[in-house]
Amino acid sequence: MENLLGLLRLHVIRGVNLAIRDSQSSDPYVIVRMGKQKLRTRVMKKILNPEWNEDLTLSISDPTLPVKIMVYDRDWFSRDDKMGDAVFYIDPFLEAIRIQNELGGLPDGTVIMKIQASRQNCLSEESKILWNKGKIVQNMFLRLQNVERGEVQLQLEWIDVSGAMCI
Q1: Splitting the chain (167 residues) into consecutive groups of 10 residues, what average pLDDT does each group show?
Q2: Cα angle at 25 between 148 and 117, to 5 degrees?
Q3: Domain boundaries, the chain
Q4: What residues have CB less than 8 Å from 163, skipping those under 6 apart?
Q5: N or C: which end of the chain has fewer CB within 10 A?
């Protein structure tokens, strides 16, 4: 892939208080999109608080593109129902990588940056980007939009590919 900056591993941890789309529950799964890339988790049956604990990896060549998270309810005999969506940008994450590259030698657990929840993002609480076990990670809870309730918990991790990330 040309202009590859690196890989972004999204650890899709869990859904919290997702909307009911079947009679009493839902069969949720997550789709992650960035540009032309599309990845998805497995379907969790009859649950509103699923724990996927799945890693999905995006190739990053255009860091200005948004990452779109869409949650659906799997229906076996009709079209899958939407259970909400969220969008985030990786600009702050890439800025934290730049800071870490400049400073170097950070102690484990160092918070590099904090992003406050606001009306301009889908965060439901403050998100911290930190240096953890030799890696830059960001934990986030995304509030789902276009639905009555629900959140998705993710962890982002940057994977440098042969020193390509010299932002």
Answers
A1: 85 97 92 97 97 97 95 93 96 90 86 92 95 92 96 94 58
A2: 35
A3: 6-157
A4: none
A5: N
Here the tokens at position 165 are 């990330």
DSSP letters, 68-88, are EEEEEE--SSSPPEEEEEEEE
d(CA 25, CA 29): 13
Cα gap 68→90, rounded to integer Å? 11
Q: Which one of 3.30.70.980, 2.60.40.150, 2.30.120.10, 3.60.40.10 gives the CATH number of domain 6-157?
A: 2.60.40.150
12's tokens: 């899709």
| Tokens representing residue 57 in the block | 């990896």
**Buried/exposed 86-111: b ≥16 CB within 10 Å, e otherwise:** bebebebbbebbeebeeeeebeeeee
* Sheet with 51-60, side-by-side order of all strands: 51-60, 6-16, 151-159, 135-143, 127-132, 110-115
Angstrom CA distances, 72 to 44, 45, 152, 167, stand at 11, 12, 12, 35
3-state secondary structure of 100: helix
